Amino acid sequence: MKFQPKNGRASLCLGKQVVTVAFFICFQSHTILLVQPTKRPEGRTYADYESVNECMEGVCKMYEEHLKRMNPNSPSITYDISQLFDFIDDLADLSCLVYRADTQTYQPYNKDWIKEKIYVLLRRQAQQAGK
């Protein structure tokens, strides 16, 4: 058995039979988060992360920092996912660029994609905490 990744495809050799499989975004891919909180372009900023999951955690942390600024006297902050998603929706722009090794380019993703990835991440964290 031999595994040879090349140009976004992996060839798996099983004796005389070769099976080629396409693979897509590795979630350990470098990810750039682009943020524009308001319509003012001078407020634009970015952050880069080693993976999509780290980036999604960064979006959550950004919201938590916002909550701390809005509630400076609160000893603890709690929120549910719908509040986080409302915050994301209220941003003038939020998008990700995820590196794709197969094309050596960055693939753009919008707010809906980001919310989906955050949902998956938080659900997985909740399941692990419940074990």
Structure, explained:
The protein has 131 residues and is an alpha+beta fold. 37% of the residues lie in helices and 31% in strands. It contains three helices and seven strands, in the order E-E-E-E-E-H-H-E-E-H. It has helices at residues 52-70, 81-90, 111-129, and strands spanning 2-6, 9-14, 17-22, 31-36, 45-49, 93-100, 105-109. The strands form two sheets. A four-stranded antiparallel β-sheet has the order 5-4-6-7. Strand 1 and strand 2 (9-14) form a beta hairpin. Helix 1 (52-70) packs across helix 3. Residues 1-26 have low confidence and may be disordered. This is Enhancer of rudimentary homolog. Keywords: Cell cycle. It comes from Acipenser oxyrinchus oxyrinchus.
What portion of residues is helical?
25-40%
> Compute the gyration radius: what is it?
19 Å
* End-to-end distance: 36 Å
Gross morphology is globular
Uncertain regions: pLDDT < 50 for 5+ in a row?
1-26
Major sheet size, sense and barrel closure? 4 strands, antiparallel
Which H/E pattern describes the elements? EEEEEHHEEH
Share of residues in strands: 25-35%
| Number of helices, where a helix is a run of at least 4 consecutive DSSP H or I residues | 3
> Can you give the mean pLDDT?
84
Biggest sheet: strand arrangement:
5-4-6-7
Number of E strands: 7
| Helix/strand class | alpha+beta
